[in-house]
Design goal:
Layout (H helix, E strand, L loop, with lengths): L3 E5 L3 H15 L4 E5 L2 H11 L6 E6 L8 H11 L4 E6 L4 H11 L3 E4 L4 H17 L1
Parallel strand pairs: 1-2, 1-3, 3-4, 4-5
Helix pairs in contact: 3-4
């Protein structure tokens, strides 16, 4: 297993769609974790910190209760700068996207509804970029 992909969205339907698509795309190459809030995602990141199998990709929504996706990614980046960060949203404003790019090394922002092939390409290019640096 190459690592863990963490998906964060407050809509269970989105998480279910991501789980099905990721499993079809990558099968058992990765483990998958799902969180319905940034707080829940932070707790999952705590569980994986220091483990052999680590979180390597975070896919997050922007508009969530509590902490917005860009703020969550900045916090995640401070702890895990090498994790590939992808925002998947229909609502993010440009300042939020810019914040995530500048302060969290956002790899890609995809709009909902997304195309599975765009998601796959974002994950694979992000991981390839990480290996090259």
């Amino acid at each position: 297993m190459d690592g863990v992909i963490l998906c964060v969205d407050d809509e269970e339907m989105i998480l279910t769609a991501l789980e099905m698509q990721l499993d079809q795309m990558f099968g058992s190459r990765f483990a998958y974790e799902f969180a319905e809030s940034a707080q829940e995602a932070c707790a999952l990141m705590d569980q994986y910190e220091g483990r052999e199998c680590q979180i390597i990709v975070i896919i997050t929504d922007w508009l969530m209760p509590g902490i917005k996706g860009d703020v969550f990614l900045v916090k995640a980046h401070q702890r895990f700068p090498k994790v590939v960060k992808i925002m998947l949203t229909g609502q993010a404003d440009q300042s939020a996207i810019q914040n995530a790019k500048e302060n969290a090394a956002l790899h890609r922002c995809l709009t909902k509804p997304w195309l599975p092939e765009d998601l796959r390409e974002a994950i694979e290019s992000g991981l390839a970029q990480g290996r090259a640096s």
